[in-house]
Amino acid sequence: MSKIKLLVLQALVAVVAVGLWYVLTTFPIFGVMVLPPFFFSNPVDVAGRIVKWFYEGTIWRHLWVTLIEAVLAFVIGSVGGVLIGFWFARKPVVAAVFDPYVKMVNALPRVVLAPIFTLWLGLGIWSKVALGVTLVFFIVFFNVYQGVKEVSPTVLANARMLGMSERQLMRHVYWPSALSWMFSSLHTSVGFAVVGAVVGEYLGSAAGLGYIIQQAEGVFDVAGVFAGMFVLAAFVIVIDLLVSAIEKRLLVWRPEAAETRA
Amino acid sequence: MPANVTATAQRNAQATSAVALAGVDVAFRLADGGSYKAIERATLEVADGEFVAIVGPTGCGKSTLLNIAAGLIGPSAGRVDIFGAQLNTLNRQAGYLFQADALFPWKTAIENVAIGLETTGTPQQEARERAQGWLVRVGLGSFGDRYPHMLSGGQRKRVGLAQVLIRDPKILLMDEPFGPLDAQTRQIMGNQLLDLWSADRKAVMFVTHDLEEAIALSDRVVIMSAGPAARIIGDWRVPLARPRDIAEVKLDSAFHGLHREIWQVLKSEVLKGYAQTGGG
After folding, report:
1. Measured between beta carbons, which residues in chain B are less than 8 angstroms from residue A154?
2. How far from chain centre, in Å, is Cα B74?
3. Rounded CA gap, A89 and A145, in Å?
4. pLDDT digits (tens, 9 = 90+) for A83-101
5. B174 to chain A: which residues are within 8 Å by CB?
6. What is the pLDDT of residue B241?
7. B255/A contact by beta carbon, under 8 A
8. Chunked in runs of 10, what are the mean pLDDT values of chain B (280 residues)?
9. Who contacts A172 (Cβ-Cβ below 8 Å, separation ≥6)?
């Protein structure tokens, strides 16, 4: 399929969906409004709200707060995941001892931690960062662990025959392998950093996209809720594009077929 | 006194050998607690500058023999001497060209070649320059900035060869290095290997399952029996003059005579190995 045709078809999906939404919320069919505007708002109101936010500039502060929280969660979670992942992979005894606890914590739905983080860290950005970190950490941790464990034995033997010391093995073999696994999960971990930030904001905060949506919901402002969701979706797409660009630069050495996402 | 004299004579004999395996057993412990004997009482000497091919059926432990010589695994009995000194750790004098892809996929061709020098403290700039020289020598001068996945199988093998040779090892261990390549490429690579080898005559242990390749390349052909507990069951000198061209040497009548002679021995082992692996 050509690129233009694909774009047209993709746009068509949006046009049809929004069109249906508009028709069903605006024109009664056989005297019945299929989607009552009170619950579903309508595209015109939502678009108007989004334009107003950007025109008045009130949205920027919230976007900025969410972005900062997501970036901090991502960075802290990744650094922690890389360090601990490396440590566990190189020290099987440590990994074996902590294994049940890692599984236990990972099985915990992170939402239940949000109130605790709010108690500990207050309503500012750090409670949201902490929530994001608990999500990002485990993804990065498992991938780095896997990456160090799954270095090809032949490559490892070759490295040793080429005279690499333990430190050089780290730098030239384990580290690049672990990084490649980490980057292959970059989309997921960045996505979870945003999720952590937004959910945290939704549960209690004074700024951010989650806060906007929560505030709108509190006063039955459905248009505001939808507008918040659309801004959030666009925000995630922009970040995802950025991640793709970074990934493309960092993983030039990987064959196309091994890419997890195009 | 006579015993002492014999020991000295032995040591002198070993001193001239690049690799000397004496009564080497290799056993692997299995997951179920038992053990699997891969190699039994292997005794083999490779003189300095000698090109020895090791031929045997699939799964007979040829690679294991190389791993022993490389010091990647230790023998469960017997001893391994490298230039007269017993090998207890990794063999620092050996370069190893593995059967499977062993290049670092995250390094470009030139980085892959240069790394062998950088590990020993050669400054990066100098290592790069010498690596470029080696890439030219293996015919890949303009491929330095390619990553392994962008190279063909034959090109990857040549990068691997440069990666090993740049360290100037005294012993070269090669494990079916041309295995996955097509017939023409094998021939070209074989000639290229002989050219590079004749420049400074390293001791070579060259594992292959291709008897023709073995005779065409080497000074000596060693035959192993089918595993488990594979033994060395034959050792032939190759009476072909050097320098050789692999395609031409295969037309020589001495080549055919030797091939027939060795194949008599090898055939039954190949059939045994075939039956054991179920034709896989």
Report:
1. 98, 100-102
2. 17
3. 5
4. 999 899 888 899 999 999 9
5. none
6. 86
7. no
8. 49 68 87 84 90 86 89 89 88 90 92 91 90 91 91 90 91 87 85 89 91 91 86 88 87 90 87 70
9. A159, A164, B104, B107, B115
| B89 shares contact with chain A (CB less than 8 Å) | no
Distance of residue B12 Cα from the nearest chain A Cα, in angstroms: 28
B119 to A168: CB separation less than 8 angstroms, yes or no: yes
Residue of B nearest to A158 (CA): B102
Q: Which of residues 140-179 of A touch B (CB under 8 A)?
A: 152, 154-155, 157-165, 168, 172-173, 176-177
Q: Where in chain A is the domain with CATH 1.10.3720.10?
A: 41-258
What is the token pair recorded at B77? Answer: 């009995």
Inter-chain CB proximity A162 and B116 less than 8 Å: yes
Which percentage of chain A shows pLDDT scores above 90?
Answer: 47
B154-159, Cβ contacts within 8 angstroms, sequence gap of 24 or more? B154/B181, B154/B185, B154/B188, B154/B189, B156/B101, B156/B103, B157/B97, B157/B181, B157/B189, B158/B189, B158/B192, B159/B103, B159/B109, B159/B112, B159/B113, B159/B135
Q: Do A155 and B120 touch (CB under 8 A)?
A: no
The second-level CATH assignment, the architecture, of A41-258 is Orthogonal Bundle (1.10)
Q: Which B-chain residues 91-120 have CB contacts (< 8 A) with chain A?
A: 92, 94-96, 98, 100-108, 115-116, 119-120
Q: Give B31-84 pLDDT, tens digit per residue.
A: 888 888 888 888 899 999 899 999 988 777 888 899 999 999 888 888 999 998
CA distance B70 to B67: 5
In this structure, how many other beta carbons lie within 10 angstroms of the beta carbon of residue B214?
26
What mean pLDDT value characterizes chain B? Answer: 86
- Write the ipTM: 0.85
Which residue in chain B has the smallest CA separation from A156? B102
With tokens 């033997």, the residue in question is A157
Q: Which residue of A has its CA nearest to B175?
A: A154
The residue among A199, A198, A179, A191 whose CA lies nearest residue A242 is A191
pLDDT of residue A71: 93
For chain B, give every domain's residue range: 100-168
- The count of C-alpha atoms lying within 13 angstroms of the C-alpha of A91, restricted to the half-sphere facing its C-beta, is 12
* Chain B neighbors of A157, CB-CB under 8 A: 72, 96, 98, 102
CB-CB neighbors (< 8 A) of A160 in chain B: 72, 90
Give A110's DSSP letter: G
What is the Cα–Cα distance from A154 to A259, expressed in whole angstroms? 22
- Given a cut of 50, whether residue A259 has pLDDT beyond it is no
Each residue's pLDDT tens digit, A165-218: 888 998 899 988 888 888 878 888 998 999 999 999 998 888 889 999 999 989
Alpha carbon of A53 to those of A46, A48, B91: distances in Å? Answer: 11, 9, 69
SS3 B14: helix
